[in-house]
Task: structure prediction
Amino acid sequence: MKSLEDLKKIREEAKRKMTMRLGEEQKYRVVVGMATCGIAAGARPVLNTLVEEVSRLNIPVTVTQTGCIGLCSLEPIVEVFDAKGEKTTYVLMNSEKAKQVALKHLKNDEVVEEYTIGQYKK
Amino acid sequence: MEDLAMYLLDIANNAIRAMASLIEIVLINSEKRDLLLLSVKDNGEGMDDQMVEKVQDPFFTTRTTRKVGLGIPLFKQGALMANGSFKLESAPHQGTLIEASYQRSHLDTPPLGDIAESLVTIIQAGEAQTIRFHYEDDARVFDLDTDQVKEILEGVSILTPEVLLWLKTYIKEGIGQ
Result:
C-alpha cells in the first residue's frame, strides 16, 4: 500500500535533479488544449503521455494546459514553444503521436512535420 | 464525453477559471445504494441567478473562441437521462456547487472512466489551488488533499512529472481502480 510518506523519496530525488539542472536552459514549453472540445477528442491521454515521456526522457520541458484554442475540429491540439517563443502547432494528436513528438521534437529538436497544422491544411 | 472522469475534468476546469482557491470534489460509487454521485464545489467568483440559468443552455458560453458551450448542458442531460438528478447552486463571490447523481444500475449511466488520470490533470491545471478529493464506495473511503501533498514536498513543485505520476498510482490504488 502506498502512503504519502513515499513522496519524501521523490522529493529528495527531485531536489537532487534540480541542483543538477541549475543554470540549464529550459528547452521548450508545451501547451495542450483542455476545453470541452479537447477533452472529448482525447486530449487527456495526450497530456499525460507528454508528462510521462518528458519525465522518462529527462528533458527540461514544461507541460501546461490551456482552454479552447479555437480549432475544435482539429483537437487534440499541442503547441510547442521554443526558447525564442517560436510556435509549432500539432493537430489531431493521440498518445502515439505525442510519444514521437516528445522524442523527435522535444528531445532531438526535429519538428515532426507530418503532424503539424501546416501539413493538415495542404 | 464518454465517461464520468471526463465530465469531472471539464467541470473542474470551470472552477479553476472562476479563480477559486479551493476545489472540493466528491465521488460516491455505491452499488448498495444504487448511486453514482459526483459533485464539484468551489469558492470562486460564482454566478448570479441569470447566469446560472444561462450556463445550462448549450448556446451560451463565456469564451470567445467559439460560440457553443457544452460542458454543463451535457453533464446535466447525462444525469437526467440516467434517472438521476442535477443541481447547480451559485452566488456571486460565494462560489459554485455542481452535483450530478445517477442511478448506478441504469443503462445510460456513464462508466467511471480513468478518475485518477482526470484528477492528476486537474491537479496539474490547478497548481495554485487547493484540491480536496473524497471518494467512497461500499468497501473503501479515500481522501486526498493537495495542501498536505505540497507540505510534504517542501517547495518541490507538484508539477514535477515524477510527483504527478506517483499521485496517479496513489489515487488509482486508493479508489481501487
